[in-house]
Amino acid sequence: MEKQKMPIITVKPDCGNSPQKALLRDFISAFAHADVDGILAPMSDDIVWNLVGDAVIEGKENVRKLLESMENAGTSDLVIESIITHGRDAAVNGVIRSNSGQVHAFCDVVQFTSAAGMKIKTMTSYSIEIKDE
Asked: pLDDT, tens digit, for every residue of 33-45?
C-alpha cells in the first residue's frame, strides 16, 4: 500500500489571532488531513451542516457517517485565504486540491453556539470546482 503524502497547508497571515480564528484554522486543516475526530471536535452535537446544492446533514453522528464515507478522498494542499469572525458568526475561505487533481474554491460560513462559544452550531459550505492555474 502506498503511503499517502501529508497535505501542504498554507495559512495567510492574520488567520489565527483569536481563539475562534485558531479553532477554525485547525478545523479546516483537519479536513485536509481527513481527521474525522478533529473535524467533529468543535461541532455541537446538534450541528446542522448545509452543503449548498447537495445536502443538509443534521447531528454530529450523521456528519461522522458522511466524513467516514469520504476518508479516501485525500487532499494534496490547502490554502486558507481568510478567516473572519464577529460575535457568533464566522467565515473561512480558501482553495483545496484533492490528490486526484480537482481544485475547489470554498467558503464555510459558521455560527457558533454563542459569541464567545467554541462549538459550531451551524455551517453552510459553498464549493466551486475551478480550473487549475
From this structure: 889 999 999 999 9
Q: Which amino acid is at 112?
A: F
**Residue by residue, what is the 3-state secondary structure of the chain?**
CCCCCCCEEEECCCCCCCHHHHHHHHHHHHHHCCCHHHHHCCEEEEEEEEECCCEEEECHHHHHHHHHHCCCCCEEEEEEEEEEEECCEEEEEEEEEECCCCEEEEEEEEEECCCCCCCEEEEEEEEEEECCC
Give the number of other Cβ atoms within 10 Å of residue 67's Cβ.
Answer: 19
Domains of the chain: 8-130 (3.10.450.50)
Tens digit of each residue's pLDDT (9 = 90 or more) over 71-107: 666 788 999 999 999 999 999 999 998 888 889 999 9
Q: Model-level pTM?
A: 0.86
